[in-house]
Design brief:
By secondary structure, this protein is mostly beta strands. Helices cover about 10% and strands about 40% of the residues. The protein starts with 15 loop residues before the first helix and ends in a 17-residue tail after the last helix.
């Protein structure tokens, strides 16, 4: 369910995960909209339930290093920051973080803040199972799942992984999607507000009338993205999907950890913000 925040609107209904992140932000007592790079705290920011890093219980302030495995148990989740990107890892998830040159001149000092030295930021995330919401700063980054490659530049995305498929919502920004089972099946997705969610299947599927009709119903304002799929035959891995299991409120709160707002934040016809 999408949740809108506004000067004249109360926050009437939020999920437990959103409430958890909101509570942590309020406890910090910072003006997140005014923070600069030097104010962005790195590493684990909030932890709920059973969260481990390389098999050891995670604690707030843990800095993530290349090769680290983050695991969340039932009813658990974690928020962490690397460079100018922030991540919300939901329950029952397994994530490996890796490093590569991304042109980011910032580095982590002893307090977990950013300073001016050179370092290798996390630029590759391997989500083996589970669910992750992410907001990325500029620079080349990527997410991999068992079925998909996702190339990212300054984007907000939500990813879910199960045995059959990966779900990828480009909440805003631009990504390049490719299917591991069909290397020639590549799609560039550009959105501002959840217009083009996709499923990337582990094996090619039959794009039959039932799947197509469901995709068209769920896509709503982006129905045009499903036009032309009928008659393309069997063997597709990347197909349209609905907008599920993440909210605008969560994206806004994640961006606050890194001192930004999403591009849709001011997109209101009456001029009010979310």
């Amino acid at each position: 369910m999408e949740i809108r925040l506004g000067r004249r609107r109360a926050l009437l209904a939020i999920g437990s995960g959103t409430l958890f992140v909101l509570n942590e932000l309020l406890l910090r007592g910072k003006n997140f909209f005014a923070m600069g790079k030097a104010d962005i705290l790195q590493g684990m920011q909030t932890i709920k339930g059973d969260v481990t890093i390389n098999g050891t219980p995670a604690t707030v302030g843990n800095i993530l290093k290349p090769g680290d495995l983050i695991v969340t148990g039932p009813g658990s989740q974690a928020v962490f920051v690397s460079g100018g990107s922030a991540y919300l890892l939901r329950e029952n998830s397994r994530l490996i973080v890796e490093s590569g040159a991304d042109g980011n001149p910032a580095a982590q000092n002893d307090t977990g803040s950013l300073d001016g030295a050179k370092h290798q930021a996390i630029t590759l995330l391997r989500l083996m199972n589970g669910k992750m919401l992410s907001v990325f700063d500029f620079g080349r980054k990527s997410v991999q799942t068992p079925s998909a490659y996702i190339g990212i530049r300054g984007t907000g995305i939500y990813v879910e992984v199960d045995d059959e498929k990966s779900y990828v919502c480009t909440c805003y920004g631009k990504v390049t999607l490719s299917a591991k089972a069909a290397p020639n099946e590549v799609e560039t997705v550009t959105t501002r507000h959840h217009e083009a969610p996709r499923y990337v299947y582990t094996n090619p599927i039959n794009m039959n009338s039932t799947i197509l009709a469901a995709a068209q119903r769920s896509n709503g304002k982006n129905r045009a993205s499903t036009e032309g799929l009928a008659g393309q035959g069997d063997g597709r891995c990347i197909v349209p999907g609905p907008m599920i299991n993440h909210t605008d409120a969560e994206l806004i709160l994640l961006e606050k950890f890194v001192g930004r707002v999403p591009p849709f934040y001011w997109d209101r016809s009456d001029g009010d913000k979310y």
